[in-house]
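[Q] Does anyone have a clean structure-token version of this?
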Amino acid sequence: MPSRFIQIHSLTSYPATLLNRDDAGFAKRMPFGGTIRTRISSQCLKRHWRTYEGVNGFAEVQAPSSVRSRESFERFVVGPLVEEGIAVDVARAAAQLIADKLLGSEAKREKAEKKGVRKKKGGSEDEADAPAERVKTAQVTVLGRPELDYLCQLARDAISAAKGDPSKVGDAIDTRMKNEKELKKNIQALLPGSLEAGLGAALFGRMVTGDVLARTDAAIHVAHAMTVHQQMTESDYFSAIDDLIREEGEQESGHINASELTSGVYYGYVVVDVNGLISNLGDNAQLARDVVRRLVHMVATVSPGAKKGSTAPYAYSHLVLVEAGKAQPRTLSNAFLTPVRDSADIIPGAYRALAGHLADLDAMYGKAEDRRHAGLQTGDQFEGKMTLAALAEWTGSCIVS
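[A] Here you go.
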């Protein structure tokens, strides 16, 4: 039976780490079930999965990449044009005009603010008299390499039509971009489906403010991971020893500070919208199967983490449970609404809580999902035990053309 949704649940234990920090340098946390839990943000998890370059990573997928940056136009539009011998001011002027057109009012507002600041400081009233600034968007944009290559060619053609005259570049770009529907069609014709925006956008979505670039809804939904128990934290006092001072017999340190460390078992939850994923990947079910297989591996084996040099925050999951079916997804985090309290029995306690919650859900709503799992010492608490590799293959097989 074709699956509409794939749900991936995981339990992963990390000792003495600082996996995801807030603006003050403390571990991110969240109240849940009347207690404070340590948390790993979904943004953190997605970034580590997106950028992982090891075995079973998305980097091995044969699909164009997405570029997430404020400087995409500077790097992939201005850079190639300058290398071809076009004056940097002309290339930047063209790239900025294209960015303004594509990204709508936000980019234009930022440009106006820059002009306002320049005038307030007593600079030239004429923007053309000031050196061209690096082209940056107001926020991080997600653009596919095919899109950026197309936009670079658009700038190249406009500059050629203007014969390199900066005062005429704007008119040349307007001429080529005046029909936004035609421009949108040209961009979307670069590759089938939404892949002109790149693999990252196809999986995790992108938001754009202009009318020309298409918004892409995320096909993979990622929850914040939280500990199944109350937060366990310790202040780590440390010092940096000055070797040369010690050689002279002094006992002082070069640096003294403290940092928060936490330990915990985290419940993670990911939902794959199968139809959305296939659509975002250009109706390519085989590519969707490949993506999902890799995702199962990465959920289990790719660790987020700060302070890598001093905590080695690497761990594999104790449990990966996959459900496939047509019913609306539902998190199993409420299995831990009452926190697991016995610190000597956290993993078995987490297993019992999760299995009990699943049984209660099945008893109330009926079992609507097909389930398989890979786990350490799970016994007969969960159905369909297999290796992680077999689980990944089974999950991919749940996507049919």
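[Q] Thanks! Anything notable?
[A] The CA atoms of residues 37 and 230 lie 5 Å apart.
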